[in-house]
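thread: overnight batch results

M.L. [08:02]
morning all. the overnight job finished for the chain we discussed friday. pasting input first so we're all looking at the same thing
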Amino acid sequence: MKMTINEMALATGARIMGNGEREILWLLTDSRSLGFAAETLFFALPSATRDSLQFIPELYSRGVRAFVVPEGFEGRIDTTVCSEASFLVVKDTLKALQMLARHHRLSFDVPVIAVTGSNGKTIVKEWLYQLLSPDWRITRSPRSYNSQVGVPLSLWEMDEMTQLAIIEAGISQPGEMERLAEMILPTIGVFTGLGDAHQENFDSLEQKGREKMKLFASCSKVVCPDGTDCAGMKGDVVRWAWGDATADLCVTAKDRVTSSSTRISAVWKGDTAVSFRIPFVDDASVMNACSCAALCLSLGMDQSVLAKRMQHLQSVAMRLDVKEGVRDISIIYDSYNSDYTGLDMALDFMNRQDDAHSLKRVLILGDMQQTGDSHETFKSKVRRMVEGRGVDETFFVGPALDGIIPGSRWWPSVDEFLRSPELATLRGCQVLLKGSHNSGFDRILDRLEKRVHETILDVDLGALAENLKYFRSRLKPETKITCMVKASAYGAGSVEVSRTLQNCGVDYLAVAVADEGVALRGAGIRTNIMVMNPEMSALDTLFKYNLQPEVYSFRILDALIASATAAGITQYPVHIKLDTGMHRLGFNPETDMERLVAVLKSQQALVPCSVFSHFAGSDSDDFDEFSRHQAALFEKGADILQNAYQHHIIRHLDNSAGIEHFPDCQLDMVRLGLGLYGISSRDGRVLSNVSTLRTTILQIRDVPRDETVGYSRRGTLSRDSRIAALPIGYADGLDRRLGCGRGYCVIAGRKAPYVGNICMDVSMVDVTDIPCEEGDQAIIFGAPDIPVTELSDAIGTIPYEILTSVSDRVKRVYYKE
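M.L. [08:03]
and the structure it wrote out:
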């Protein structure tokens, strides 16, 4: 729904500068997501890492003419380059966004379902959409848009066609839910349950539970599991429980019907038998299905209709897979939602890739839900999205997509598209493949995807960002962050990890050698890159690719000065390393500083950008005294260097463990390594798991007692056994020391110990007591199934070795929750 600048000013209390009659259709908080410039309003939201006002001139040059800005913005940007712009000037831009969302929400007298809880929010929201959309025209939160920014953007999606809204709400600290509740104003609530997620900012689970329940103050009914504290709820409480006849929905049994489906039996309101089957077997899915069933039944859905729809629930693919394709194609595969929102989110994701504007962008789009629109309106909306997102070439597949864009190519079915020669013409481009599995788009993926090893390392870039957010929460707002991406980002893949970190606004990326930095520059990484171990043979490479070297000895310092001087380079930034006790690399802060300062001040080729050292034992309380000694030595050396220069030289000492253990040593910057990848250096606990190594069962065979398995006959069986062969070995990074029962993988949620020696390409596990089949998945490592620390502890090593050992032949699949 369009709204004028004048109307928005009334809703937010803003002061208008410029044209107040300008009409707005789209809200924008991230400059990378710009699609329809002329009708877009950009909110310059506050950020701990950058000044959002800096994006206004660029957005203006791209056609945006409306901006929400904080008071006093005039002195921070050049408004003369935005002469035709309309500005809404407010005290707080985030609050203005939320006030506008509330105003918009109040325009609709329709049921609004709010979903919150510690786990399962997005899945329950999506399943409710699948169950209720045959009867309602529904607006729902895109993906996991549940934050202080995501919720108002979700509410803005409501339009004159909306008959029901389903809005997801998430919090991470006290005080947030009231702001969300004031915007959403839900009429119905769904609480999925209480758990440990985002617990760090709450004193107790009870406090977090009370905070979450504030969302439901205006609800006429609230669906929740047994044990939820609903004290003070004004509306009806619809409770579901296991075996409790007093519950509104009493679940009496869950039976695994097949390897991929479960039948749930229950009694509704004490007298109506309910039975339905879901195409999932995990406990979390069963609980989520019960929440959905309780809500649908409370809305009057017949249990036979519920049963029919439940068996067709689709998994919520809360990720966009980035895959390597044939002929240098980069594939983004999205089978998430075949509607306007899903298409817009997928196009946005494609535009956010750093190579998106250097590669030709191709969209292969399958049939979509028209959600009540006329066919002409549907075609118009899709056409505007595709054209607004800058797609270079589009292939439409499906009967409803004929004639979307004049002159574009169209095929009535996937079969006809696969028979055409078009796929073979694609090379060196980025392809967004947007269509459901049911429509056969997985067959198009099979044709485009590069065939690789069956063993895969899943890398959750969303979890990576969550870990960064966690460590940032422990820092002062002004403290900078260097993120370690050496050793292929601890095995996760340096390019995709660096892209994510760059999008998150980190200050530096750190690699071990120049070649690693060159690869990142080649992939479009613009963030400052620090090279920790510059090699004498690669000094010119540093300058050519704008890589900033660590300087740890007079030999490397002299060589850098000579090389930079010969190339006519002046004031090139370098990072000075002091050895305060690690005794690995670095200048001695007690004996080398006078000479170091003299050499640096005698030339103009290099200038110290930062000075740093490395704790030797910040991961253990046993070394606290030594760590304090290191900090004192570092301060002494850093002071000497700083006193020689007028500009401020950045100081950094804390590593991941230091951030958690020595907050007073964060100084100007910290270096985040293992913690970024989900493992605390202090106690080995898992933060948000980033990397999961998985494979599939190649073959299962029955082997009699007293027979042996594997090379050297090391695996003698003590019973008749079922032995599964997995296509992963020590050439893939599976350590041989885990063999002969010292380690295990996880299959169907159970431990499967390795039998015999681990081979180069294959390993064998005992699945005698595990119901599994050939082709089933095996988790090698990845929390919660098997944390990396369990493997490292089993063979007496450290998590770093496990993570960095995953070989290049193992395919990486990147996704964002």
